[in-house]
Amino acid sequence: MVQMEGKLTAVLMSGSDLKGDDAYAIVKLGKKQVIKTNKDDSHNPEWNFTREVHIKGDYEEMTIAVYEDDDFSSDDFLGSVTIPVSRLSGGPVNGTFALQTKEGEPAGEIKAIFSFEAGEVSIFDQLKDKLHDSDSD
After folding, report:
1. Any long-range contacts for 129-134 (C-beta under 8 Å, 24+ apart)?
2. CA 123 to each of CA 2, 32, 56, 59, 130: distance values in angstroms, whole numbers, following the listed order
3. What is the pLDDT of residues 14-56, one digit of tens each?
4. E strand or H helix at 121, and its extent?
5. What is the pLDDT of residue 136?
6. Domains defined for the chain, CATH in brackets
7. Residue 104 backbone dihedrals phi, psi, to 5 degrees
């Protein structure tokens, strides 16, 4: 576990070779969802989505998961990748990450950049992030 307090910046640029369209991505720290992109109607979505969130807690991993939006049933899981949060301490994590299904099969790729800036997180910062999240749902 890594104690993290500060600002996480995520730039979710695009996905490629996804198995579904209407794709969106979420970022989780542990089990907590901290970021969700808008959906893009393509197997190769161009989200160009940047979000900063204030985080405070002990985390081991960050997961990027991609889903297909489904109007008539629950959204379909397309794939995910897990990144140890310890990688963020060495500077920005920038790359094209291979997604895998729950069975370990290739599920496309996602291009993203993550950075973490340590600093004090106030209750105001956390409330502001929660309000922003409720506006984007």
Report:
1. 129/53, 129/54, 133/36
2. 21, 17, 10, 19, 11
3. 999 998 889 999 999 989 899 999 888 888 999 999 999 999 9
4. none
5. 52
6. 2-136 (2.60.40.150)
7. 85, 10
- CA distances 119 to 6, 8, 56, 91, Å, are 4, 10, 10, 15
pTM: predicted TM-score of the whole model, two decimal places: 0.87
Residue 90 sits at φ, ψ, to 5 deg, of -90, 10
Q: What is the DSSP letter of 75?
A: P
pLDDT digits 0-9 by tens, 77-130: 999 999 999 999 889 999 999 999 999 999 999 999 999 999 998 887 777 777
Give the length of the chain: 137
Helical segments of the chain, H only: 123-136
Q: Which amino acid is at 50?
A: T
For the chain, how long is the longest CA-to-CA vector?
43
